[in-house]
Amino acid sequence: MKKILALLGFDPLKHSVKVEMMAGLTTFLTMSYILAVNPLILGETGMDKGALFTATIAAAVIATLVMAFYAKMPFALASGMGLNAFFAYTLVLTMGYTWQEALAAVLFEGIVFILLTFFKVREAIVNAIPLNLRYSISVGIGLFIAYIGLKNGGIIVASDATVTTLGPWTVSSLIAGAGVLLGGVLMAVGVRGALFYTIIVMTVIGIPLGVTQLPENFSLVSLPESMAPIAFHMDFSRFLSLDINYYVVVFTLLFMDLFDTLGTLIGASTSAGMADPRTGKIHGLNRALMADAVGTTAGALCGTSTVTTYVESTTGIAAGGRTGLTSLTVALFFLVALFFSPLFLIIPSAATTSALVLVGVLMTKTITKIDFSDFTEAVPCFITILTMPFTASISEGIVLGMLSYVLVKVCTGHYKELSIVMYILAAFFILKYVFN
């Protein structure tokens, strides 16, 4: 036992087994909503939901175990919100790629991320993207996720006159709206696992009202669903066709994953005192990034979207988690959840609206960090934020935001503020539209 704890970076003189394991439970409860949401979102592409449930857990367990034993850090990983929406609603339903082709893009992105991490060149990519633009991307994704939640819950519907409008108050939309309010209240008073509990409560309420459909011979516990319908089903034909849009997709996935992970690791580590107080450097950052890259690669092989480090890990860190024992505990709870797929698979879209909307709230809080006093910063950021929900495309938001950033800076004489990498990216994006 002592040897295992040592492998996790656990020091009995500095850490407590009880505290670390409770921190792991806290993190799991806070992020466990992904077990209900991910199969629903990716299931929109035609993928088997039962297989998606198992794949979601498999990818989370693999990535989190690498984080526990290799990075020895208290972070948990799973298929990322926003990234799964990009996979389903942008790549497949909007751009027309098959889910097999989208999985190939995820796999390729994971391999590239591994290489970038191994050769330690990620800093050049990170430093090339202006800080305000990074904040605006988070806000845009948050609005897009919230939009999806409201749409899936029936709170907003299509309109010929105004594109979208408030939908009729049906039983389903009332449950969705009540879930948003309940989840918001629980989060406001600091309830651990607020999103998870809200989903469960709304699902139970939906049973007698006919919103939650129980199959015949329903059982809470069952053997894990097979991943066979989706595992190892990547289609690499787009790589051979030299489709420039496809390569933009891979870059976008890499970009989103990279900054999601870095933002979480840097923010959480700094607030928890895990960063060097003099330099701000985080011990083990490169290893943590490798766990993310390995998780994404493994997830694509299993049949799920990009894996990323969860910001909900901060709840476990706040509860005292400091070592790999915390992340190991999260992985073990995910394994236990593997046998409760019937419970998660009956959850209706109306019950997950709260998670999507409230995660959107969390992601949009970075808008306060954007410098709107400088129009050369404000305009590109505003374009990025608006484009994502209005075009239902995260990639278009990133592309147009970065392209407009370069053009506005150049046209106003602020070209010296741009890195050579930004010029290269802008040229790449222009070619994307020319040959589209």
Automatic annotation (TrEMBL):
Superkingdom in the source lineage: Bacteria
InterPro entries linked to this entry: Azg-like, Azg-like_bact_archaea, NCS2
Keywords: Cell membrane, Membrane, Transmembrane, Transmembrane helix, Transport
A Pfam family of this chain: Xan_ur_permease
Gene source species: Prevotella aff. ruminicola Tc2-24
The protein's name: Putative MFS transporter, AGZA family, xanthine/uracil permease
GO molecular function, one term: purine nucleobase transmembrane transporter activity
Transmembrane segments: 21-41, 53-70, 77-96, 102-119, 131-150, 170-189, 194-214, 244-268, 289-311, 331-362, 382-406, 418-435
Residues of the signal peptide: none
Gene Ontology cellular component terms for the protein in this record: plasma membrane
Classification lineage: Bacteria, Pseudomonadati, Bacteroidota, Bacteroidia, Bacteroidales
Entry membrane topology: Multi-pass membrane protein
Primary localization class, coarse: membrane
Location of this chain's protein in the cell: Cell membrane
PANTHER family: XANTHINE/URACIL PERMEASE C887.17-RELATED (PTHR43337), XANTHINE_URACIL PERMEASE C887.17-RELATED (PTHR43337:SF1)
Recorded family membership: Belongs to the nucleobase:cation symporter-2 (NCS2) (TC 2.A.40) family. Azg-like subfamily.
